[in-house]
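Blackboard transcription, Thursday session:
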Amino acid sequence: MTGTLRIGDFSPDDRHVHACWRLDNTSVMYFRDPRRFGGLWTYPSPEALAERWHALGPDALAVGCDDLYARLKGSARAIKAALLDQGVIAGVGNIYADESLHAAGIHPRRMAGKLTHAECGRLADAIRSVLGHAITRGGSTFRDYVDAQGNPGTAQAYHMVYGRAGQACFGCRRPLQHAVIGQRQTVWCPACQPETPPH
Ligand SMILES: [Zn+2]
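(Written on the board underneath:)
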């Protein structure tokens, strides 16, 4: 949730730098994490690393309708909670789960296993689109997130729901609702993301 990998120099007095590496091109990469929610893991072999990756679902940037539908099938969890499970798909965190569900018009409390094939298609499209746009904007910076060159992201200026609880939905102007779903603060539009979808 926190911590940044940076390229460049750092002060030897900076007690928030926990590890550094000298790269082949002689530049230095370092891991800085003042809040200590981040972590580093080492693996004894490429095989051990591959095994770790194997526990992750498909990359969210490449997830397709059929894959998402198959992975959610039979799940009684809320779709918000399922999206945050990195074993279902890898790469969606709290911000982009809310943004993707809003873009797809899906209520975050809908049961994951009950989403239709068409809804999974809309959701997979939304996930790829939301993440793709966020990446081109350098990510979302609320506290201390910066990229490897130390630049903050600008994607937060384009959020439709995340961080906007109580404000008007950009789509329908109704106030956005919020609640804890999947153990995380969740924001959605009650009109654009109906809890009971029309059939
Ligand atoms: Zn709305």
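Lecturer's comment: The mean pLDDT is 91.
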